[in-house]
Design the sequence.
């Protein structure tokens, strides 16, 4: 079913500038420790609780200090940022998304698809070249050892963007194997939007409409291993979370319940989808990496 389109707002200049700040520590492999909840990333509240906490621009996690949602944002006044290296794990979704990687590269990044064959192991060496990985249509579930390696990479400063909702089958939930340490998971049933209810957060600044067509709500699994902020909600039921912003150790993730945001029909024609990606990468990317500057 085709998504309902509204007139999208302008980009608000989100991709007009390069940005950077101080660097994260390097990834040391699966032996790197997970530091758990950190001091930036938001609150774990859902529904009205998350929205209330965000009104002051700060969130509060039970048992944790107040968290500065703007902490770690790229500093536009700095210079010498490095080009962002992006690894796209898995295959594209069912609809045309052939231009997504090209768009990322034209926006100033290096991007390549990896893990497209079912027999490829996920190792520290696989992840080491990348600042950010995008979890696309994964070819399989990952082992406990691979999940530990992935978690160590995130905790050391890696950024993650996750999508799902490909064909309403068990393959839609393969990402849960890698997301488990972040304490979030995709959950049935299949849901549709669009998403028009956003919590104040750097990822959602200025957004009023993001496509969501046959995806899944994201569940909070609890625990202190990460801090989790519900940043967007589906219309039915109103407390179903469309996306979480997560911080674990030095790394950050945005876990989104649908894959339509990568389709050519959406990001290439709706300015707010482009704005969403620019802001998403700006928040999850390690410091000292350049922000996306989309082509005009």
Sequence:
């Amino acid at each position: 079913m085709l998504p309902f389109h509204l007139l999208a707002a302008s980009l608000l200049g989100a991709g007009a500038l390069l940005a950077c700040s101080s660097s994260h520590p390097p990834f040391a492999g699966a032996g790197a420790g997970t530091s758990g909840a950190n001091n930036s990333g938001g609150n774990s509240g859902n529904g009205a609780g998350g929205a209330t906490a965000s009104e002051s621009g700060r969130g509060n996690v039970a048992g944790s200090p107040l968290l500065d949602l703007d902490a770690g944002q790229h500093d536009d006044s700095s210079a010498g940022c490095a080009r962002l290296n992006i690894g796209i794990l898995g295959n594209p979704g069912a609809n045309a998304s052939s231009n997504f990687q090209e768009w990322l590269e034209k926006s100033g990044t290096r991007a390549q698809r990896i893990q497209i064959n079912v027999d490829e192991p996920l190792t520290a060496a696989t992840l080491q070249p990348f600042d950010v990985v995008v979890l696309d249509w994964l070819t399989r579930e990952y082992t406990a050892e691979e999940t530990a390696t992935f978690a160590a990479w995130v905790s050391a400063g890696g950024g993650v963007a996750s999508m799902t909702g490909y064909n309403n089958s068990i393959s839609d939930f393969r990402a849960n194997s890698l997301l488990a340490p972040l304490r979030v998971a995709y959950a049935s049933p299949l849901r549709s939007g669009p998403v028009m209810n956003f919590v104040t957060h750097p990822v959602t600044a200025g957004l009023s409409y993001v496509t969501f067509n046959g995806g899944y709500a994201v569940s909070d699994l609890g625990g202190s291993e990460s801090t989790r902020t519900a940043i967007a909600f589906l219309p039915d039921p109103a407390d179903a979370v469309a996306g979480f912003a997560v911080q674990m150790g030095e790394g950050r993730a945005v876990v989104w319940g649908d894959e339509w945001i990568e389709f050519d029909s959406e990001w290439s024609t709706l300015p707010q989808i482009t704005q969403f990606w620019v802001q998403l990468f700006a928040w999850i990317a390690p410091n000292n990496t350049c922000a996306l500057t989309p082509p005009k």
